[in-house]
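Listing S7. Sequence submitted for prediction.
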Amino acid sequence: MDKKTSMLRVGLIGLALAIAGPATAATPRETLTQASFLTTDKATALALINRGLAEANAILARDPQDKEAQMQRGVAIGDRGHLKRSPGDAKAARQIFEAFLAANPRDPEAHLAIATWHLDTVDAGFFAATLLGGKKDIGLAELDKAVALGGGRPFFTGFAALMRIRLNPNDVVAARTLAEQAAIAPAPTALDRIAKHAAQEVLIPLRNGDGRTAALLARKYLPFGRIG
């Protein structure tokens, strides 16, 4: 086993251990976190995404103003669109995130959701970006806003580091700065712990100036990175 393969294997085991909570998730966020970070096949991930979407819809049927359910509904639809390569789902998720941000302009998670939407779309290639309107500049600007509003939580700094180095393996300095912050910050939630662990792992190549290996690791640690 070579060094890079060993690093990925150890890191993925640690990533799984970083997710706290029962095997059967009790909330839409927990269900979708399991789909994004603990599944290794598309069918399982899609089943969890559909469950998370149903859970979010059930909450919204009782309380249409529930912000958490609104956000997780958008995440579920966006995740489904990502795995099924569905332009309709992708566009619907973007509309949900933009409406949520308009109502909650200082919510860092809303900025992160829009940043992720644009940068994932750009990462999918020229055709997807053109079809859906994904913009690198918008994605990076929203990523910066999420970090600025995120109170130093690894959920924002850590995932920002991963997305930046994935987008540009030469962006070592910016990615390392963000990852260094995430690696030592308190991690109050499961997603913070996931992002913190990922930042700690990606810091190994980043500190050596190896953006290429860091970008490879970032892809593994971002949502659905374990699905072959």
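Caption to Listing S7: primary sequence and predicted structure tokens for the chain studied. The chain has one domain: 3-221. The CA atoms of residues 63 and 69 lie 9 Å apart.
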